[in-house]
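User: I'm writing a tutorial on reading structure tokens. Could you give me a worked example: one chain, its sequence, then its tokens, then a sentence or two explaining what the tokens reveal?
Assistant: Sure. Here is the example chain.
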Amino acid sequence: MALPSSGTISISQIASEFSDTAPHSMSEFYRGGGKVPDSPTNTSIPTSGQIAVGNFYGAQNRVGLPLTISGNTQNYDLWSNVSGNPGYSAGSTDITLTINPGVFVGSTSTGSYALSIPGSFTSGDTVTVVNNGTVIGMAGNGGIGGGNPPWPENASGGSNGGNAVYVNFATTITNNGTLAGGGGGGGGGGRGAGTKPRPPKQGGPTVVIYGGGGGGGGAGYNAGSGATGGQNTTANGAPGSSGSPTGGGGGGAGTTDNPSYGGPGGPGGSGGGQGANGNSGSPGNGGPGFAPDFIRGGAGGGTRGYYLVGNPYVTYPATGTRLGQVS
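And here are its predicted structure tokens:
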């Protein structure tokens, strides 16, 4: 609570505001000297030399430190932005981070966080985040479609989405926007197979392989990449589409060169949206008169990321939109 802005102030009031024990001396209360924070509210208090009670009108033992994210960014670490700030006073600072509307805070990898609030702050500090934008993890990439050697016969799964927010210090989050884990990547489609007729003198029908479609990338900032369809086949699978910050990309189509021969390969799964799992790729299809051992199943989609890791540290005056896992 700030000292009065007018009227009479006593040294005992000053001592109470700045947690000083008796006996009291005015020389204990220089700004930046250990008891009085060097903050904008305390600029009338000298750092040395002559000091008087009248210098303390409106002074307080708290520092308000506002920070704003006004443009898209990635891997924002709150402590890194606070610790070197000249307005920070350990243990007596009220930090408020505001994320502006329309802004995306994302990550450069699925193994790192879009927004980190580590436990490096000092007891007595307060941390508040006002999110009016979107904080979202990096998305998972799609899995490749199954094909024919030397291309892998089996489709690969979509990769997992990354995490949005990490908290390890008591934090108030007023979420007027969106917190979302990155979407998982879609799984690749399984290869298909069929039989292609040939003249008897060439040995009769032969087995032909059709590529599965590639999986789509998940939603995130950064978004996941779509994967390549199955290759080295009679007909290659189509690639999946990349995701975007707001939605997952579609899976690529499986292919065949002639529906009467059999196939096609299975389509790839679509990437997960914000905070959503990626979809599995479909199995390949076959045709009449050949061994089904040539067909392969589709691969699974990637798992959605966490919108928050460190939930016990967080209080929500407004919950907004929260998508994905939480722990």
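What the tokens reveal: The radius of gyration is 30 Å. The CA atoms of residues 43 and 274 lie 46 Å apart.
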